[in-house]
């Protein structure tokens, strides 16, 4: 079987060198090109038709998402995104099962990402990639984050400043906004509200809970990757098992 054709896109020479070394370690991969900016990447993807692209997000001029938009999500090969740290993008990738690596690259992590990409290509399991990429693009290109939430109660309409919310939890077809000692009930879903909030300000920590990062006082590790989250107002929440990666990112990037 011929090696899979790989293309790397990164504006940093040292990063490109590191990616080259990781790809050359794998006999099932062949590096067919290296690009340093978005426009060059678009031309290379169209001309070389690689099986796999390792694509940096923070490119000068046209960023990584711009490259995907220019090529078209439906025409992109298998992808591994690379980023120095973009919390918004990372959450979008996780939600759509799109692989990524953090810079500076860790060799073991990169090799795992390459292995998953190879398996995906070899199994021809790329059918849903365009839909997942499009979902990521829609999320990261969304409008500015919500600043105020409209609350309707007993014929009265009031506004809650998002920055004043301690945490949010689900209540059947409603969400509850906890603001100090007050609780406001708003019709809607957790998913829709999460998509409207700033990922730099709010974190989904459970299927039924979103917390304001500025309101976290302390975290206490529990079993199975869960955490007890203690808020400044005295409230306590427990993160879900499936949100372990998000909590670990929060701790790793606490400053």
* Total beta strands: 15
- Low-confidence runs: none
> How is the largest sheet built, in terms of strand order?
2-1-3-4-5
The CATH first-level class of the largest domain comes to Alpha Beta
As for the number of domains, it is 2
Q: Secondary-structure element order, as H and E?
A: EHEHEHEHEHHEEEEEHEEEEEH
Q: Percent helix among the residues?
A: 25-40%
Mean pLDDT: 88
Main β sheet profile: 5 strands, parallel
Fold-level CATH name of the largest domain: Rossmann fold
Estimated structural class? alpha/beta
Number of helices: 8
Net shape: elongated
Strand content: 25-35%
CATH-level-2 architecture of the largest domain:
3-Layer(aba) Sandwich
CATH superfamily of the largest domain: Response regulator
The end-to-end span amounts to 47 Å
- Spatial extent as radius of gyration: 21 Å
Quick structural summary:
With 255 residues, the protein is an alpha/beta fold. It contains 8 helices and 15 strands.
Q: How would you describe this protein?
A:
The protein has 255 residues and is an alpha/beta fold. The chain has 2 domains: 4-140, Rossmann fold; 148-252, LytTr DNA-binding domain (OB fold (Dihydrolipoamide Acetyltransferase, E2P)), CATH 2.40.50.1020. The protein is 33% helix and 31% strand. It has 8 helices and 15 strands. It has helices spanning 13-24, 38-48, 64-71, 87-96, 107-122, 129-140, 190-196, 244-252; strands at 4-9, 29-35, 52-56, 78-83, 100-102, 148-153, 156-161, 167-171, 174-179, 182-187, 202-206, 209-212, 216-221, 227-231, 236-238. The strands form 4 sheets. A 5-stranded parallel sheet has the order 2-1-3-4-5, with helices on both faces. A 5-stranded antiparallel sheet has the order 10-9-8-12-11. It has a 3-stranded antiparallel sheet with strand order 13-14-15, with no helix packed on it. Helix 1 links the parallel strand 1 (4-9) and strand 2.
